[in-house]
Amino acid sequence: MTSRGFLLGSAMIAAISILSGCSEKGGKLANVDDERLVAGSPDGADWLSYGRTMDEQRFSPLTQVSDQNVGQLGLAWSSDMDTARGQEATPIVVDGVMYVSTAWSMVKAYDAATGKKMWEYDPQVPRAKLVDVCCDAVNRGVAVYKGRVYVATLDGRLVALNADNGKVLWDKLTIPKGSPMSITGAPRIVKGKVLIGAAGAEYIVRGYLAAFDAETGKEAWRFYTVPGDPSKPFEGKHLEAASKTWAPDAWKNGGGGTVWDSITYDPKTDLVYFGTANAEPWNPNARGGKAGDSLYTASIVAIRPDTGEYVWHFQQTPEDRWDYDSTQQIIAADLPINGKSTRVVMHAPKNGFFYVLDAKTGKFLSGKPFAKTITWAKGLDPVTGKPIINPEARYELTGKPFIGLPGAVGAHSWQPMSYSPKTGLVYIPANEVAQPYFAAPKDWKPGKVGFQIGLDTGKLGMPADPAVRAAAAAATTGSLVAWDPVAGKPRWTVEHPGPSNGGTLVTAGNLVFQGTAGGEFRAYTADTGKQLWSFATQTGVIAAPMTYAVKGQQYVAILVGWGGVFDVAPGILAGKSGSVRNISRMLVFKVGAKGQLPPPPADAKRVLDPPPFIASKASAADAGASPYQNSCSVCHGDAAIAGGLNPDLRHSASLGNEKLWQQIVHDGILSANGMVAWKGEYTPAQIENIRQYVIRRANEDKALEAKSKKVAMR
Fold it and tell me: Do 577 and 540 sit in the same domain of this protein?
């Protein structure tokens, strides 16, 4: 290098270093430090963390919008999203600026009063990552701290952005390289660290919660939730204890226990509480054939935020074989227990029981069913809280199908609940959805792509039988439950036609807000459940609302856009709440506003016109049922009936073209759209069997449609 070149190079390096040094300090906006996070905006003007306050109560002290004037609530501003997938995020608002993530882990910043977009960021997540995602390309939110905005991306990165302009400060891969893990949850800031886990407990993965330095992105600690390779030292005494509850070779199939959502910090106890996902594979036979509790899956775990040190755990679903994640939001609060104010954590996991635990020790205080029907357990031990498992629910031992209630969707899924210290009630978005379980043969081995749950779902698809479908639909509902955690019973309930409705917000104005799967945003009285207001959102709602104030004016905001697991996987039941589509928008309301949404696009009715099914192909179609249900239904729907987000294969142009079908499924010519190659999992002959199965299913449904029209004409 010449001296001139050397000097120029040195100058460039110096300039880059200066710029990097400046950017690492973050911006002037989002000026949130630890003290401010702990205080949690006592006046309610800001929404600083995912659940507003670090205890995740989702209670706002704002009263300008109340049960006296909520009927005057109108649209103040809206903003269309450029991601037509499910929208699950709760916005953050700091000092009049809104930060929100959208599907595909994109981030946008708005003037919270006017809706003027300030900046946006796209992490460029490869669309092929969809094959590693159970439940849509969603993201639940960002975190803010000292001039930075943090987002965890679907492909496993944690990214720090300058709050002023959205420029990347650092970008760190947090999952093992090449892992099928993904991230859909919102990071949490605790004492200068960014906490995040990952999803993927239906794949061959090992769960964890990790902490990263908020300024540099350097990993501070990593808490594994399930044991790893026993030939290596345990990463903590808690894992040595857990290993006794697993078969020796169970680690080879991952174990699961991922931390894909709930993370709560309670300053009063100085503990971090998080929930863990299901055991992997679901079928205990596929975990090594030894029945055991499989710690620390389907559990609440408490650790110290400074070191990641284990403090206590409470396993809500030992032996989990039903996909009963405990990853739902955990609320810390003070409750009168036996006449004494007690610091507790409250939890309504998938399994259908509402738990109250001592926040300091994890001691079981109470557990009552909030779900209408529970078939997997006969109750909880009143002293220990351990479930009394129904023997028929151990399907891998009986060798028979088992209809689980709740099912894998859960009596309560990720949609956040809220707690009001004023009413003393918890507001739960509850589901009633059954799930059939049937163990795969004992020689089952995990594949290379897609779900690896150890079930034979091929025999359990929804049949083309109107009576069966009608019965399943009638039994599939949702509700908003106002739960009294001290008395252990509901105070009031609002019924919904279908499940997977949005999360809740409760305010000091005696209001509970919730969006519905059927396309409404509603307000109810918090004390009685009387509906006072609604707004037609033009799309299903799964996200939770929030509220904030700018210059003394209260706003209520919600991100709308139908998607998530219930639009993707359950087949014909996906439309239980009505025909909805994805129209992704941010909607912001205030009293007296008169804004209007543009008219929704007209529905395009699609007519089933599949190639004819040839009777001689019946054996091929039969053979294609299991691979379709085990691998394809996760995206394209049970029994080949898709929701609104992913292609419905019964209408596919490739269905009548064997060569094109092979190019798509076997070769992966549509990988850029998320449809990766399955040649490592299935042979061309097996892929042709799947095509024949879909052709048969399309013809069955075409015949049913024709029959129903004739009946209607009569």
Answer: yes
Are 514 and 524 within 8 A, CB to CB?
Answer: yes
259 lies in the same domain as 351:
yes
Whole-number mean pLDDT of the chain? 93
The one-letter code for the residue type at 188 is: R
3-state secondary structure 247-275: CCCHHHHCEECCCCCCEEEECCCCEEEEE
Q: Which of 102-106, 260-264, 411-415, 460-464 has the weakest average pLDDT?
A: 460-464
The CATH number for 177's domain is: 2.140.10.10
CB 480 within 8 A of CB 530: no
> How many residues would you count in the chain?
714
Q: What's the Cα-to-Cα distance from 115 to each of 150, 538, 566, 586, rounded to whole Å? A: 21, 19, 30, 9
Q: Do 143 and 117 belong together in one domain?
A: yes
Domain boundary residue, one of 556, 591, 626: 591
Residue 489 pLDDT > 60: yes
Residue 8: the pLDDT is 33
Determine which one of 323, 325, 456, 638 is catalytic: 323
User: At residue 714, does pLDDT exceed 50?
Assistant: no
pTM score of the predicted model: 0.95
Instruction: Tell me which H or E stretch contains 709.
Output: helix 684-713
Give the confidence band of 581 by pLDDT, cuts at 50, 70, 90: confident
Backbone angles phi, psi at 119, to 5 degrees: -165, 165
Residues 6+ apart with CB under 8 A from 599: none
Query: What is the span of the domain harbouring residue 534?
Result: 34-434+475-591
Q: Mean pLDDT across the stretch 415-420?
A: 98
Assess whether 172 and 124 both reside in one domain: yes
Residue 627 inside a domain? The answer is: yes
Confidence of residue 713 (pLDDT cuts 50, 70, 90): very low
Q: Which residues pair with 93 in a beta bridge?
A: 47, 98
Same domain, yes or no: 509 and 553: yes
Asked if the model's pLDDT at residue 500 lies above 50, the reply is yes
Q: Distance between CA 125 and CA 199 in Å, rounded?
A: 16
3-state SS, one letter per residue, for 551-590: CCEEEEEEEECCCCHHHHCCHHHHHCCCCCCCCCEEEEEE
323 given a catalytic annotation: yes
Q: Which of 591, 617, 649 is the last residue of a domain?
A: 591
* Residue 9 belongs to some domain of the structure: no
